[in-house]
Specification:
Layout lengths: L6 H6 L1 H23 L2 E10 L5 E12 L3 E3 L5 H7 L2 H17 L6 E5 L10 H12 L6 E5 L2 H4 L2 H13 L3 E7 L5 H7 L4 E4 L1 H6 L4 H17 L2 E4 L5 H10 L3 E2 L8 E2 L9
Helix pairs in contact: 4-5
The structure holds ligand C2E and calcium ion (CA) (3 copies).
Organism: Phytopseudomonas seleniipraecipitans
Protein name: EAL domain-containing protein
Length: about 270
């Protein structure tokens, strides 16, 4: 075997090298995807408990790959984050979501996921402001979903960024709530508009008293803090009934509709 130069690494760690090569080629593919418009958004309805109507949608990215078909976000977002392409991918999501939502006759809200890595870009607030200005979307119709990790690292500067975003008039949701740790403390550091209860709790609620207690604690607390709560991953009528009993304000899940491309966006519930 060759032991000199670049090949030495390959000799000792063929699997690492293969992974590195796959990542490099994925990075190049992703760059092309950005330029060719292969990154699209699917929209999943969010239903209001009070009115039983669709009040908004979460924008979820899909990569329409010419060779591999539809690629799911968990298969490319982490690579975009590692390579720094997430800044462009994230801007694409913001611009596209604002443009598409601006044309919706029902004027529902649109929620866009922000990667914690995007907070490392000092232009984030400017990018969001431009997406709003270019599309003409009313800021109140845009919601940004962040995860606890944004509050964990660089918390002071990130909280300042969140305040600046909020000053644009957009809403901020705390996603995947309950999956991190010391979650409750975060609610003091910033006034979130919405908490999204992670689907793992919704799905375990039927069998696990612990999961149900956590859902109950979140809805109880959110109710008194006047924060909206969206339960994610609602798949069954039994889950829906339970979540209504707990006083969740909004629901999202396959029971109401799967994420759909812009052209097939679900406009009314069946
Ligand atoms: P997330 O933000 O927690 O999004 C919810 C995920 O749950 C979506 O997966 C959605 O399709 C799925 N889901 C919705 N209802 C149900 C249900 O009833 N049952 C089950 N089992 N799943 C349901 P998806 O679309 O594969 O997205 C996965 C993750 O990728 C998202 O999790 C989010 O963290 C990330 N992501 C998606 N789009 C973007 C984006 O534009 N930017 C960034 N930074 N991340 C994104
Ligand atoms: Ca989300
Ligand atoms: Ca989530
Ligand atoms: Ca998640």
């Amino acid at each position: 075997a060759k032991r000199n130069g670049r090949n030495r690494y390959e000799y000792f760690h063929p699997e690492l090298d293969a992974a590195a090569r796959r990542r490099r080629s994925m990075e190049m593919d992703l760059r092309t995807a950005l330029h060719l418009g292969q990154l699209q958004l699917y929209y999943q309805p969010i239903v209001d408990n009070g009115s039983n109507q669709i009040s908004g949608y979460e924008a979820l990215m899909r990569w329409q790959h010419p060779g591999n078909g539809l690629v799911m976000p968990l298969d490319f977002i982490p690579i975009a984050e590692e390579t720094g392409l997430i800044h462009e991918v994230g801007a694409r999501a913001l611009n596209l979501a604002c443009q598409e939502a601006a044309s919706w006759p029902g004027k529902q809200t649109v929620a866009v996921n922000l990667s914690p890595v995007q907070f490392k870009n000092s232009d984030l607030v400017k990018i969001v402001g431009l997406a709003l200005a270019d599309s003409g979307l009313e800021p109140e119709r845009l919601e940004l979903e962040i995860t606890e990790s944004v509050l964990l690292e660089n918390s002071e500067s990130n909280i300042d960024t969140l305040k600046e975003l909020k000053a644009l008039g957009v809403s901020i949701a705390l996603d995947d709530f309950g999956t991190g740790y010391s979650s409750l403390g975060y609610l003091r550091s910033f006034s979130f508009d919405r908490i999204k209860i992670d689907k793992s709790f919704v799905q375990d609620m039927g069998e696990s008293r612990e999961a149900l207690s956590i859902v109950r604690a979140i809805t109880g607390m959110s109710g008194s803090l006047l924060i909206k709560t969206t339960a994610e991953g609602v798949e069954t009528d039994a889950q829906l009934e339970q979540l209504k009993a707990e006083g969740c304000s909004h629901f999202q899940g396959y029971l109401f509709g799967r994420p759909q491309p812009a052209s097939e966006r679900i406009e009314v519930l069946e």
